[in-house]
Every structure is written in structure tokens, then in C-alpha cells.
Design brief:
Length: 142
Amino acid sequence: MKYIVLVSHGNFAYGLESALRMLDGGEREDIIAMGLTPDMGSEAYTKELKAKLSGITSDDEILLFGDIGGGSPLTMAANVLNELGLLGVALIYGGSNLPLVLNASLMKDAMTAEELNDFILEGAKDELKRMSFGGDDGDEDI
């Protein structure tokens, strides 16, 4: 199975998980979210994340999305994957957003890991757009 693992500072990962489930299929065991809260130390975070990842084996694949590349939640998650012997079956991305994760979720079972990686990286370039609303005078009317 291919898993999507979402990690973040605060509740961002849980919000992303909620929106992803709404848009792509409700309750699914292949989506796992974990947020690092202000009252949680690194030991508690890694312990809880290990428990959430306990059903994943080296026969599975993981798409790990962190809110910030190089941020504590993502680096600790990568360390957990390494400890569990799962780093070799993971594609790891920093700087996640809903369109990026939704595209990955929709396409993950239709592509190889390398194809999916190329798809995710190419799609990420197109996701941020300046939006303009309103009339000819340049005012933004929403």
C-alpha cells in the first residue's frame, strides 16, 4: 500500500488530512497525520508518530509531506522512518499544500514511485498563482 503521511507544526497536518478526506474518499487508512504541538516535546512527538506508523512495512511505500522543508516535524519524521527501516521506501517533501497532496493522493496508485515523484514536483510548480478578482480598475472585489 502507498501511504500519505502528513506532518506539521500545530494542527496544519490535521486540517490538511480533514480536507483531503473530504475531497478524496472519507475514512481511509492510507492517510496519517501528525502535528507537533507547542506542549509536545520531541520525545512525545516521535513516540506518537512511531505508533501511528506501526502498521507500515518495508513492502509499502510512503509519501511524507511536511509543512516546512527542514522543519522539526519533517526532520523528526524522517528520523522515525529511518529507525523503523522505512526511509528507503519513502519520498519526502517539504512545503505541502492541499492541491499538492490531493494530486498525490489521486494519482499515487496509478504511478510508480519515480513517475509519482516527477508528477508531484512538476505539479508543485503550477500550484501557486496570483489571483485577481474585480473590475478593470485593478481593485480586488471578492
